[in-house]
Amino acid sequence: MRFSVRLAIILVVFSGHALAKAKKGQDDAKKTGAGMMDSNDPVDKETSDEGPFAPKHKSEEGETGEAKEGEAKGKDATPASEAHEEIRRSPRAKVGVFGNVVVGFGKPVEPGPGEDDSLTNKGTSFTFMVGGHYDVSPQFTLGLRVPWTTASERQPDGSYASSQALGAPELMGEYRVRLSPRTDLPIDFGLGVPVAQGNYDQVNGVAQYRQAVVNDFADAASGFRDGELFGPKRLPLVFGVGIDYQRRELSLHAGTKFVAGFKVGGAANYLPNTFGTFELKSVTFRNVTSAGIAYQFLAKPALSGALDSWIATNAVNNVEFKSNAGATGPGRVQVVFEPRLAARFGKIAPSLGYIFPIGGRLADNHTSGLELHCDVAF
Predict the structure, then answer these.
(1) Which helix (H) or strand (E) holds 322?
(2) Sign (positive/negative) of CA torsion 68, 74, 77, 80?
(3) Does one domain contain both 54 and 26?
(4) Residue 227 lies in a domain
(5) Are 22 and 100 within one domain?
(6) Lowest mean pLDDT: which of 3-7, 88-92, 258-262, 353-357?
(7) Which range, 11-25, 87-101, 106-120, has the best average confidence (pLDDT)?
(8) Into how many domains does the chain fold?
(9) 139 and 284 both lie in a single domain
(10) Which residues, at least 6 apart from 133, have a Cβ–Cβ distance to it below 8 Å?
(11) Can you give the residue range of the structural domain that contains 163?
């Protein structure tokens, strides 16, 4: 009997609880309206959308509410992670100037029978370059750079002969195609002013010949990377394309450029010799294909480590050498590496790198360069 009474009480309590829960579900259904049901009626779907004055239920204040709030800001908005990474791209200054110094060691590379560069001796060069850029638009930039080099070369008697030479100022342009929030496709072009000093005439102009050697030394110390700046009496044309990727502290870049230099004067007149002949070419041609990586390992102050590398192919040199004995001429392909350490202090960004060759004629001549660079943004 007691068991039956207890069972009846349990059933009454359970039934009351079930009825209360059912009644609460009916009340929620009334509050929610027909929009919570499957309906093909456009009016039903329109009225079910959350408006700015719609009451917020407890469930909407959780994850669902946050998602709806994000949709209210715009369904096509950039995801937060991508927007953050886009902001973390290195900022571009609309106007900027720079100064660059390359200290070269070793021997300038002159036309001759390969490894035996008997025409030159070891020395030291200092190439100073200044320039700047102006962003005409967020995608298009104009720039200018002007090089000047002084060098001293050790003579057979132990003394040093010094000379200076102006390079070819270059007007540059870059158009950037945005492939994604993190990736750009830069398209570069350049036109040089054919005022680089020097002439390959040992017989009639020793002073101008030394200027040609100075510009050749600057070209070698920079690892054949910017030959368009150092061709005596040449009109250089440059075209290049690359890719630039940045994601937070990491940046990657690669590119290739083609440089053609058209003769506007000069002559190749070397002292009499028995090992070959020299010819001043009407058009020179060089390709430089590069790749690099940089990583910012410290935020304040902003410090980055980088490694750049490139392959320079000198298809046609300023002066071509032809051996009388049929010996193989100097190699035309050069591989170069440059590790760099960079920093940023507000609008000033200095960097320090060392240019060293891997094999090839530059390595045979023990030619390398210490590069100091500084950008100033406005």
Answers:
(1) strand 319-323
(2) negative
(3) no
(4) yes
(5) no
(6) 3-7
(7) 87-101
(8) 3
(9) yes
(10) 95, 96, 141, 142, 143, 144, 172
(11) 93-377
**81 falls within a domain:** no
126 neighbors 144 (Cβ within 8 angstroms): no
Do 131 and 195 belong to one domain? yes
40 with 25, same domain: the answer is: no
Tokens, residue 79 = 């995801």
Q: What is the pTM of this model?
A: 0.75
Handedness of CA 319, 324, 328, 330 (dihedral sign): negative
Residues 342 and 255 in one domain: yes
- Give dist(CA 80, CA 74) in Å, integer: 12
Residue from 49, 48, 189, 215 nearest 120 by CA: 215
CATH number of the domain that residue 326 is part of: 2.40.160.40
**Nearest Cα to Cα of residue 140 among 196, 92, 86, 102:** 92
**Residue whose C-alpha is closest to residue 239's, from 287, 178, 195, 290:** 287
Rounded to the nearest integer, the mean pLDDT of the chain is 81
Distance from C-alpha of 190 to C-alpha of 172, rounded to nearest angstrom: 4
Same domain, 50 and 167: no
| Same domain assignment for residues 54 and 2 | no
What does the buried/exposed string (b/e) look like for 261-270 if buried means 16 or more CB atoms within 10 Å of the residue's CB? bebeebebeb
Instruction: Give 229: exposed, middle or buried? Use CB within 10 Å, 0-12, 13-18, 19+.
Output: buried
pLDDT of the residue at 49: 43
Give dist(CA 199, CA 213) in Å, integer: 9
> Any idea of the CA torsion for 105, 111, 117, 121, to the nearest 10 degrees?
-50
